[in-house]
Amino acid sequence: MRRTALLVSAALLTALLPLASAQAAAADDPAPVPVDRFEGEVPFASQPAEGIFTWGSDSDDPPALQLTARADAPEGGKVLTGSYDISGWGGFTHDYAADAPAHDWSAHQGIRFWWDGRNSGRKIAFELKDGGAHGEASELWTTSFTDDFTGWKQLEIPFTDFVYRTDYQPVGGIDHVLGLTRMWGYAVTLPTGVKGEFAMDGVELYGKADQSLRARVTTDSAVHPVDEGQAAAVRFTVATTGGAAIDEPVTVTYETTGGTAESGTDYTPVTGTLTFPAGTPSGTSRTLHVPTLKDKAAEPAETIPLRLTVTGAKPPAETPQIVIDAHGLPYLNSKLPVRKRVADLVSRMSLAEKAGQMTQAERGAVGTPGDIATYGLGSLLSGGGSTPTPNTPEGWAKMIDSFQLRAQATRFQIPLIYGVDAVHGHNNLVGATVLPHNIGIGATRDPGLARKAGAVTAAEVRATGIPWDFAPCLCVTRDERWGRSYESFGEDPALVESMETIIQGLQGARSGKDLADGDKVLATAKHFVGDGGTAYGSSSTGTYTIDQGVTRVTRQQLEAVHLAPYREAVERGVGSVMPSYSSLDLLGDGRGPVKMHARADMINGLLKDRMGFDGFVISDWAGIDQIPGDYASDVRTAVDAGVDMIMVPYAYQDFHATLVDEVKAGRISEGRVADAVSRILTQKFRLGLFEKPYADTGGASRIGSAGHRAVAREAAAESQVLLKNSGGVLPLKKAQKVYVAGSNADDIGNQSGGWTVTWQGSSGDITPGTTILEAMRKNAAHLTYSKDASAPTDRYDAGVVVVGETPYAEGVGDVGNGHDLELSAGDKAAVDRVCSAMKCAVLIVSGRPQLIGDRLDGIDALVASWLPGTEGDGVADVLYGKRPFSGQLPVTWPRSLAQLPINVGDAAYDPQFPYGWGLTTLGKVPHGGATTLKVLAAAARAAERAGAREAGRALVTRARLIVQQRAGQHITAAVAKPFADADHLLLSGRYGAAVDRLTAAYRAAPRES
Fold first, then answer.
1. What's the pTM?
2. Residue 204 is a catalytic residue
3. Which of these is catalytic: 500, 620, 634, 944?
4. Of 228, 362, 421, 810, which is the active-site residue?
5. Which one, 19, 210, 374, 436, has the greatest CB density within 10 A?
6. 40-44, 143-147, 210-214, 705-709: lowest mean pLDDT where?
7. Residue 749 belongs to a domain with what CATH number?
């Protein structure tokens, strides 16, 4: 489906338009130019032919359109009518043909049309398509009108009322100028959530392009920081819609007045007029200089607004201001210890300024850019899929720099700390290196590789101006029905702890001394604590079944399973921690389920006091809203519980005001606020943001580079877990004739999973990368691909069927919320067709185990591919034997849904494949029996006593491979339980005990026949 125009968020729509009935045209206006008369001259069609076509978010959302003869038609005999019932987004477009010349609308004042009002009070978005190659590759400009009238009304919209769309651009934006010389048509986005009908007629261009409406004066920036004693340069530019020269003079009268700087003491006042004569080309600039004066006093920043009066054009949207930079104050001295800088700055700040530092807003929700300074915001974030246009490294850096510039207009010029969920690479950025999700990293059992994955992520994130990553997720997943299972390294806290080397990859040294480097970011341990243990059916969030539910554990279980990774994170110096949405029901404490954002005993008492965490705690997305009580109570409870910064994506004004009121009323102590702000500022100083607030793009050339993709390829290869390999089907040989099928063989979106470009992720070619099929083609002399296995299957040496899940994130992916653990009907059919016709290997691309037991006997080789990311070459590397399979299951693979939850250490444990299982394709697999295992056990104990980690791991791995060879596919409960226990013991450093448990599994295993 072509996404010509999406539903525009109410937060992004412009203010209600004061539209009136069309007035009689002035005598010298050009004649109206018809666009649509709806008499049949423009057909209903689809691209690339010119015509009117509908679109929507799913099959039910496109409206039904027809041309209807009506006696009351304002123009002609027919009108466009339609009915709609839209749940997501939907509407219609008139597009000019892709191969036809664009139209020139620049001579006209605006566009007008007749609308049959129903007085519904609903907003209707109206959009123009400007520039670019054709209607589907143009730039989108939008406005809206309100259906608050009854009957036919002619609505006039001047072109100057259209604003550039910031939520979606089909080609990432072009020049951000509504040129009107290359127009491809218009689109109408209809209201959602209500059934409705509409009628429209007579779309036409009207009026003459009045210079005062089409010309505008802009400044190069709304904020101009300058060192004391230097002159600020403010550049004014005159530009016209359509790009024509101005035909009347434009004057800009200016005066320095107001602000916090003192005229004559801090700056030399200026006043005067800049004139752009008639005939001045669009884009011409004039520069105004404002001298500042130097004194010997240490001072905070001071502002000098420029009052402007513009004639002949629209004035700048904001009053530009010069900012004399803060200087001479101790907190600005980079040679002082961070703690002294923090103490000095906090001592100078007002309550409102402190409240601002504790506030984090979503970048798309900031009403006006000036709010950053007005509220002294401490942080902005991009939620999943909240990206700049264009979504490029340069686009990110430019956007974040523009936000940082606004923070320079505050008294102490405290920089923002910008955060993003980069959970498997810089996954919001198109073209970034997308690594396997954590479940795959856990399968590698390679702490060094986890660290390299963190380093790649940090380098790409920081190169776009972002210093803070909401990763890693340290949840211990205990139920694969959870939609966030793939964000976990595994079900064993010992495995999760071993993968926390990723924190050093992200942050560098535990002390934080590397955080200011251009390739490091502040890490976030999330979600504290117990989010992986929520009980199925306990969620109260919408249709979620398990995510954001209740974790019911004893204190001993909490400590042993869910808290252990956080102790390790604190030891590694993680800079921030995010509480979970979930509730904790600590059995025996008499409190019942309590939201984690409200648990002072866990955040203040355990994390900060007992563990000694010295970073800051950031809430999850609107997490405090889930605390019972009114809003003031939510704020008070969360802050008193130890949450230092509150993520209030769309409520930053309300939160700021409420926090200030609560402190003034004495319900939140000033000391608690000072502590929170001190923790936040400490990390900002460590990140070097006061010295370098703007993006350091020196590493941008490494984003998506061959070197970074090589790390992702290595991770993808090591994450592949070979579960079955009867008859040595794998590795494949280049000369073999191979038949490839399955829904996930050639889909970069599916193999990357959720949290890729958008929050939920999506299928298809969403970002550059190599699919598994493309990678296999590089290795195969003879390969046939048939997605649904409908092509003939005779005379092939081997088949590879790549199946599994489509992307999802969080509770949207919960089993029972439209998802299950079964292969789709199409995938099952492809497996059956291929595996009944030839030797076959089935690859499961998924975020969690899939129930495959009913087909396992007919499958020769089975691989858990997890979500390998953009580097499908890594998968092909093990399929074709360039690297041996070495991955191990990070979670237990169940036989049936009824077994869930099932985890290593359970008293009853009879899975399809146990935790830690993973065959190899090494050329020489270790052999031996009980005697060999006895020798290995003795050597393992010696390695344990000597602290020889690598030797101990190697000895246990050898024993594991011997046991797997013995057991084959005869994995009974008597084999599975000690086998899984052994991997937990290995990760806990108990190598001798691990071999002992493997010996027990060996003795329980029947010989492979």
1. 0.88
2. no
3. 620
4. 810
5. 436
6. 210-214
7. 3.40.50.1700
